[in-house]
UniProtKB/TrEMBL annotation:
The keyword GTP-binding applies. One of its GO terms (cellular component) is cytoplasm. Monomer. Associates with the 50S ribosomal subunit. This is GTPase HflX. The keyword S-adenosyl-L-methionine does not apply. GTPase that associates with the 50S ribosomal subunit and may have a role during protein synthesis or ribosome biogenesis. It comes from Bacteroides reticulotermitis.
Length: 416
């Protein structure tokens, strides 16, 4: 069966396509395309060109208009003449099977959308049997409604309408037969994967029950905000951390001791805008650590221009997985990378978020969160002692409430 995404990182060139719509202005579209370029780079592709178009909504047939599609086609042909072949075109939204089929027929190159690109990265990052099973299930869910385009060569062979005219004699049926066969194979495989995930869930539930009387703390946040780096600092471990999206895919749980208090700290997969619903569904078992946590540490990259929207994305995703409403500490990371635009003294226009200094931003959020937030740099180890103090106090409060008769297991000791 034909693969629908690349299965390993290759240095292919890619063109990105996004829309400026009524609900997504030019600045936001640029930000989304920057993130899409980062996703492409993580998957092993090199972005060589970006195309945008203003439309009220996406074209239901070709996503962009005919003129823009022709412009992309011309660019690909010109690059090919210069021996700079474009390997793929990546669209910033999930494409319908109809859009995918039409665009592919017009451009004659590999077409990916945001969903298939994220799925490809997840497949590349998955290490454990649990993660691999969840990714495979999500891939099949994505593939199922798009099976028809994998057999368009049989449709072209058939010609005609299937009524016995137009040269389809002897060629009616194979496409449909193969389609149904593939559909049955995939549905059977999905049932098997779901059963396997149920078994893994049972095992993980047993593991969680056996972890003893300790408070569970989960690091959550947008992808690439520094959760794994914070995990390494608090747990003195070596969790894989990299400046790429979805560097962490499998949930990691470590025992942490601050002063005399032990607790469990988990590092979870990062969230992202437009995260495919199927992927959220498939990864619910991985995110059980979030649902069962007593305290969430929401890590935010304050140096990112769209950090407030990223906070909203994380909160919405937490609501989707039934992980909202828990005690939470908001940690603004990467303060060492924060920049702002200083307004000229003669500029009388209102100040925007981009004009706020770090100190002003800190005061704004501390007032909003009633001091329930911290500003740190995990990489430069700025305010890490303050972070440990706050986490200790919050975990201690929860420990006393949950296990009132359980003394702390360790004597206070001085760390070297």
């Amino acid at each position: 069966m034909k693969e629908f995404v690349i299965s390993e990182a290759k240095a292919e060139t890619a063109v990105l396509v996004g829309l400026i719509t009524q609900t997504q202005d030019e600045r936001k579209t640029k930000e989304y395309l920057d993130e899409l370029a980062f996703l492409a780079e993580t998957a092993g592709a090199e972005v060589v060109k970006e195309f945008t178009q203003k439309l009220p909504i996406a074209n239901s047939v070709t996503y962009v208009g005919k003129g823009k599609l022709e412009e992309i086609k011309t660019y690909i042909a010109t690059e090919a003449e210069e021996e700079r072949e474009v390997g793929m075109v990546i669209f910033d939204d999930e494409l319908s099977p109809k859009q995918l089929r039409n665009i592919e027929a017009e451009l004659n190159v590999k077409i990916l959308d945001r969903t298939s690109l994220i799925l490809d990265i997840f497949a590349m990052r998955a290490q454990t049997a649990n993660a691999k099973t969840q990714v495979e299930l999500a891939q099949y869910k994505y593939m199922l409604p798009r099976l028809q385009r994998l057999w368009t060569h049989l449709e072209r062979q058939g010609g005609g309408s299937g009524s016995g005219k137009g040269g389809s004699v002897g060629l009616r049926g194979p496409g449909e037969t193969q389609l149904e066969m593939d559909r049955r194979i995939i549905l059977n495989r999905m049932s098997l994967l779901k059963e396997r995930l149920r078994e893994i869930d049972k095992q993980k539930a047993t593991q969680r029950k056996n972890r003893g009387r300790m408070i569970r703390v989960a690091l959550v946040g947008y992808t690439n905000v520094g959760k794994s780096t914070i995990m390494n600092l608090l747990a003195k471990s070596e969790v894989f951390a990299e400046n790429k999206l979805f560097a962490t895919l499998d949930t990691t749980v470590r025992k942490v001791i601050i002063e005399n208090l032990p607790f469990l700290l988990s590092d979870t997969v990062g969230f992202i805008r437009k995260l495919p619903t199927d992927l959220v569904e498939s990864f619910k078992s991985t995110l059980d650590e979030v649902r069962e946590a007593d305290l969430l540490i929401h890590v935010v990259d304050i140096s990112h221009v769209g950090f407030e929207e990223q906070i909203d994305v994380v909160n919405k995703t937490l609501a989707e997985i039934e992980g909202s409403g828990k005690p939470m500490i908001l940690i603004f990371n990467k303060i060492d990378a924060y920049t702002y635009i200083e307004k000229a003294s003669d500029d009388l226009t209102p100040r925007t978020k981009e004009n706020l200094t770090l100190e002003e931003l800190m005061k704004t959020w501390m007032a909003k969160m009633e001091d329930n937030c911290l500003f740190i740099s995990a990489r430069e180890r700025i305010n890490i002692d303050e972070l440990k103090d706050v986490v200790y106090q919050r975990v201690k409060e929860l420990h006393v409430q949950k296990y009132p008769y359980n003394d702390f297991l360790y004597q206070t000791y001085d760390e070297e």
